[in-house]
Amino acid sequence: MPAQPASRVPDEAHQPPDEPLWCQHCDSDKHLLVNSIQSHYPPAPNMVEVTYECHACRYAYQQVASVQRVALVLNRPGVSQGVLQFGGQYLHCGEPMKTKSCELRRIQAPLVLRPGGQLRMYEVLINTRILGCHCGFRMEIPE
User: What are 89-127's pLDDT values in tens digits?
Assistant: First the structure.
């Protein structure tokens, strides 16, 4: 009798591992700040792709975790998370930031392409969005 194909195995068998958010350098989760939460691909029930950093060690991590594991870090009393990217939104003070304006920014840098070569100035133009929060916090992101 042939075995069933993998596509017929219940969803639970395809779940990615659900490890706690943890700093391997300081062996703790006390100083973690969540930076970004994105959809996990391929989709898995209650699982997200999360990036976070240890505020004490300055080490950054990215992993797949359950919504519950991420919530344990986000919902700690007295911990300010700063700016959180959640899907296409940026949150500060617990609310989505709103676009205040758009601007064109110019970035210039001198560059020598060959040793002993001529110094040339290069520039890049970038469209940016200025996001603002009701508390007055603002940040600029490329479009």
Answer: 888 887 889 999 999 999 998 888 888 888 888 899 999
What does the block give as tokens for 96? 């989505």
Contact call for residues 128 and 143 (beta carbons, < 8 A): yes
- CA 21 from chain centre, in angstroms, equals 14
Question: What pLDDT digit, counting tens, does each position of 38-70 carry?
Answer: 888 888 888 899 999 998 999 999 999 998 998
* Integer-rounded Cα radius of gyration of the chain: 21
Quote the tokens at residue 84: 């959180």
* The pair of three-digit structure tokens given for residue 139, joined into one six-digit string: 């940040």
User: pTM for the full model?
Assistant: 0.60
> Based on the number of CB atoms within 10 Å of its own CB, is 2 exposed (0-12), middle (13-18) or buried (19 or more)?
exposed
